[in-house]
């Protein structure tokens, strides 16, 4: 019979201990990096939207079909193929464009 020591009794090689520690640290750094990147993306997109106006007064007979906004303006596309651009601060109509078919 051989008297080889059991694998549990053998000491861990120093290189393997270092590699195990390195893999553990790098895994933690990768997880923290992904969480940080996702947090930055969430914060960036969460704070970029300007608040919606309380009331939008459209001209008589206009029915809104779409809405978009910029930093100091918002636009409403109507069912009769017009784009109405309003000033965000005053709510007044800045410009009206007709869409040709």
Distance between the termini: 94 Å
Q: How many β-strand stretches?
A: 4
Q: Cα-atom Rg, whole angstroms? A: 31 Å
Strand content: 15-25%
Helical content band:
25-40%
Number of domains as seen in the coordinates: 2
- The neighbouring-strand order within the major sheet is 1-2-3-4
Q: What string gives the helices and strands in order? A: HEEEE
Shape, per Cα inertia axes? rod-shaped
Put simply, the count of helices is 1
Please state the structural category: alpha+beta
User: Which runs of at least 5 residues are low in confidence (pLDDT < 50)?
Assistant: none
On the 0 to 100 scale, the average pLDDT is 87
Taking the sheet with the most strands, its summary is: 4 strands, antiparallel
What does the model show?
By secondary structure, the protein is an alpha+beta fold. The chain folds into two domains: 12-48; 64-98, no CATH class. The protein is built from one helix and four strands; from the N terminus they run αββββ. The chain has one helix spanning 14-46; strands at 64-69, 73-78, 82-87, 93-98. Strands 1-2-3-4 form a four-stranded antiparallel beta sheet, with no helix packed on it. Strand 3 (82-87) and strand 4 form a beta hairpin. The radius of gyration is 31 Å and the shape is rod-shaped. The chain starts with 13 loop residues before the first helix and ends with a strand.
């Amino acid at each position: 019979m051989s008297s080889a020591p059991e694998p549990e009794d053998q000491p861990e090689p120093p290189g393997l201990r270092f590699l195990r520690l390195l893999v553990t640290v790098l895994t933690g750094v990768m997880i923290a990096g992904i969480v940080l990147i996702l947090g930055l993306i969430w914060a960036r997109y969460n704070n970029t939207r300007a608040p919606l106006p309380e009331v939008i007064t459209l001209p008589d007979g206009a029915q809104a079909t779409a809405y978009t906004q910029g930093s100091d303006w918002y636009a409403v596309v109507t069912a009769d193929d017009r784009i109405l651009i309003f000033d965000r601060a005053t709510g007044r109509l800045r410009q009206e464009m007709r869409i040709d078919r």
